[in-house]
Design goal:
Blueprint: E1 2-6, H1 13-21, E2 36-41, H2 45-54, E3 58-60, E4 63-68, H3 84-91, E5 95-101, H4 117-149, H5 153-170, H6 182-188, E6 199-204, H7 213-221, E7 230-234, H8 236-243, H9 247-257, H10 263-274, E8 277-282, E9 287-294, H11 299-306, H12 308-312, E10 314-321, H13 322-328, H14 331-337, E11 341-343, E12 353-359
Parallel strand pairs: 1-4, 1-5, 3-9, 5-6, 6-7
Antiparallel strand pairs: 2-4, 8-9, 10-11, 10-12
Amino acid sequence: MQIGLVGLQFSGKSTLFNIISGNVNEESSGVNEDARIEVVKVPDKRLDLLTEMFNPKKKVNATIEAYDFPGLRMADDGKVRLTTQFLENVKNNDALFYVIRQFEEPSVPHPMNDVNPVRDFEFLETEFLLTDHAFLENRIEKLKKEVMKSKDENLKKELPVIEKCLAWVENEKPLRNLNLEENEKKLLSGYQLLTLKPLSVAINLDENSISDSEKFVNELRSVIKDQEIKIIPFSAKIEIELASLSDEDRIEFMGDYGIEESALSKILNSSYKILGLHSFFTVGEDECRAWTIKKRFTAQEAAGVIHTDFYNKFIRAEVVHYQDFIDHGSFAKCKDAGVWSLEGKEYVVQDGDIINVRHS
């Protein structure tokens, strides 16, 4: 799964990318020309505790790919040029994060000359809406010609869906807010429409404003009507400091600023949520591992994530939920308490299940 960080130049986007990729000492000039890619470990306190209990040879976190795209810059005419290469790269991501600037820093001027998070959000939305609009118009034109020449029923089914999307976009509404049937979503999936992608927003505050983060979030929320879009306040400067501290000092530092969760954890957990993902665990003396699956995956499908043969030769899954295991302390005690179960291939795996796959 891939998440893409996009934003205006000097928004703190590349610094945030350095934080979540663990490269906090890397310089962020704000003028990177190429997209940067990192495979990022998803922090999970549950996996940490299971590892302490089993003391395995190896701990394996779930991972997600993060992309840092070049900051969007203003041309001399005051407009941003979205290159074909930029758009193609962004389209390949499963979800997007807009990184919005709220901090004041005279030495790093905002490309639009003043700090205005609401304007910046609307700017990004408008640019991507225009991109989708152009694609949909072109697609309709081609479809109408193809429908006249071909008897392909799929083309006839596609045309009204594309027209429905175009009408929505023409009203300046992102496609993620359009009520689409599952078959319509499947039809559109290959086109990688930008405003159809799940979205979160990271708002970069200065260290003196972090205590007022709720105020800034509410200001942005007044524009973002879709409650499914998570707005994550963070301070890049504070996060860099946190990354350099020991675990003990980090807890104390976060307490001083009233920070309950790091930006790294917030962003990666938000990515999981908007992509419809969650984790199950396998544990033992050799390895404790978190596995990423789509919500509603069955036990057989989850087994196939571990190994293809496990899907084909699946018999049963031994299942204990994480919290039940922590409460009772061992699989034997979980069996005695009746919270251990043997499930068939249709069992829907829950977030935090600990699973052992029985296979032939």
